[in-house]
Amino acid sequence: MRKVAKALWVFLIILLASLTLIFLSLFSYDIFCIQKTSSAYSPTVAAVFAALAAFLFSTYKYSGQKSYEKSKFYLESSIENIRRSYAMLADGNNERIIWIAAVRILRHSQQIAEKITEDEHIKLFEIEIDYQRIKYATFLKYSASFYYGVAPDLPLSEAAKQSNAGEDRYISKVRNIPPEILYALYEFTKFPGSYKDPNDAIWDTTFKKEDMAFLPQGLLEYIYYIQQNPTNEVAEKGHSEDN
Fold first, then answer.
1. What is the dihedral of CA 141, 143, 146, 151, to 10 degrees?
2. Which of 53, 50, 26 lies closest to 40 in space, CA to CA?
3. Statement: residue 230 has pLDDT above 70
4. C-alpha–C-alpha distance, residues 134 and 131, integer Å
5. What are the backbone angles phi and psi of residue 92, rounded to the nearest 5°?
6. Alpha carbon distance 123, 106 (integer Å)
7. What is the per-residue pLDDT across 50-64, written as a single tens digit (0 to 9) for each?
8. pLDDT digits (tens, 9 = 90+) for 41-51
9. Is the pLDDT of residue 238 over 50?
10. Where are the alpha helices (DSSP H) in 90-216?
11. 178 DSSP 8-state letter
């Protein structure tokens, strides 16, 4: 939608500039032919079109600058809060309220990021997200008892029991981290099913035969094997063998 609006602005500016040139050309022709009376209005009309073109150009330039600044603000705000959310959980705590607050911040950050419009800002955000996905994934690798909000080394049945145990004057207290919160984290850490290096469209990243002589042994074996056995085929073979 933004690209359409940008194209429309450019079209209007070019149209007005063209009309300005046409009327100035007519006026010049009239002077040359000594026929000023037939197109005496040409300079005035041309000046009007020129003024409109200048106004539209300055408005377009200002609008583009404001759009860039807003996009940058959304980029910086979303990244800052994604990092803030991570910092809340980075100490290894399993406090229910902290986990809920951290994921709320994370979700709001993602909503803010949807307002980023500039291509370069979108790419910068994607770079940050790829990095943060890997970091956030560590929060999904704790023991089952950990997510009950109690000592992570307790047997699972005991952890579940203690999770609702009373404290001080309270008969019971909910300590477990809601599954919905964990699912939101899981969704954030997932790479898209079609995830692919965007540079593939720019560079040829296929190993050539002449490259093989310079690869370390482990990498060489991996590349050779995967070229001979594409991932989908390996997965299908493994699935059929399991069945």
1. -140
2. 26
3. no
4. 6
5. 85, 15
6. 19
7. 566 565 556 655 555
8. 445 555 555 56
9. no
10. 96-113, 119-136, 156-163, 179-189
11. P
**Domain range summary for the chain, segments of one domain joined by +:** 2-193
The two three-digit tokens of residue 193, written as one number = 């099913």
Strand-pair partners of 170: 167
Q: 178 vs 94, 105, 149, 228, CA distance in Å?
A: 11, 16, 10, 44
Chain position carrying tokens 């490259």: 211
Q: Compute the residue count for the chain.
A: 243
Alpha helices in the chain (DSSP H): 2-33, 42-89, 96-113, 119-136, 156-163, 179-189, 217-228, 231-242
Surface-to-core class of residue 52, CB atoms within 10 Å of its CB (0-12 exposed, 13-18 middle, 19+ buried)? middle
Judge contact between 99 and 79, C-beta under 8 A: no
Location of structure tokens 């993602």: 110
CB-CB contact of 163 with 176 (8 Å): yes
Kindly compute the dihedral angle of the four CA atoms of residues 145, 146, 148, 151, in this order, to the nearest 10 degrees. 80
State the Cα–Cα distance between residues 94 and 20, nearest whole angstrom. Answer: 69
